[in-house]
Design brief:
Length: 200
């Protein structure tokens, strides 16, 4: 029995449990995406005057400030989707329900080719009091989400959420969140590219 004990111990160490964490490469990729879209947001909103922040190309379009608010509100909403997924038990048997890969999530969400009307809950309504308030809210939430991804040992690949792309896994929800930020930074850039955008 003593001779067999080392083999039992080795088997226990080598066994990958159903609640396996994401790989090092997956963690690195998610962190890079979250930091990249955060930096895109910072660059787009930095140094704008009040007139520039609040400029609208048309009465029905959004200003940079309103887009910033939408991004901030959506950051929390998408994270709630992730939290809902994490309350489920890990279930590898459902992997077949995920029909889109990671690259497809990022490309699909970040693209501005297909415009989607947002829900009332995510529509800008000066929820944070000012553009600066929206920016602070987003940065605070994003930094905490980066910290989660950096340290989590949870199984993000075998828990699932419903999105406009169908069923995705919890890891892909994180990519969805980053891609959503990039999508709306592009919207900010469209506003600022308008010929009548204030010079200062």
């Amino acid at each position: 029995m003593k001779k067999l004990l080392p083999f039992f111990l080795l088997a226990l160490v080598s066994f990958r449990s159903p609640d396996a964490t994401i790989t090092a490469d997956e963690r690195k990729a998610a962190l890079e995406q979250l930091k990249l879209s955060r930096d895109q947001f910072t660059k787009a909103t930095k140094g704008l005057t009040e007139a520039q922040m609040n400029y609208k190309a048309t009465p029905d379009s959004w200003s940079v400030a309103e887009v910033a608010e939408h991004i901030a509100v959506s950051e929390s909403a998408i994270w709630s989707m992730l939290e809902g997924a994490m309350k489920q038990p890990a279930d590898p048997s459902r992997r077949g329900e995920v029909k889109v890969d990671d690259a497809g999530i990022l490309a699909g969400v970040s693209s501005r080719e297909r415009k989607v009307k947002t829900s009332e809950a995510l529509t800008p309504a000066n929820k944070f009091g000012s553009a600066d308030g929206s920016i602070r809210e987003f940065m605070t939430k994003r930094d905490s989400h980066i910290a989660f991804v950096k340290d989590t040992q949870e199984d993000l690949r075998n828990r699932y959420a419903q999105t406009p792309f169908g069923i995705v896994d919890a890891y892909q929800v994180i990519l969805f969140m980053s891609g959503h930020t990039t999508r709306h930074v592009k919207q900010m850039e469209e506003v600022m590219a308008n010929a009548s955008f204030p010079k200062k």
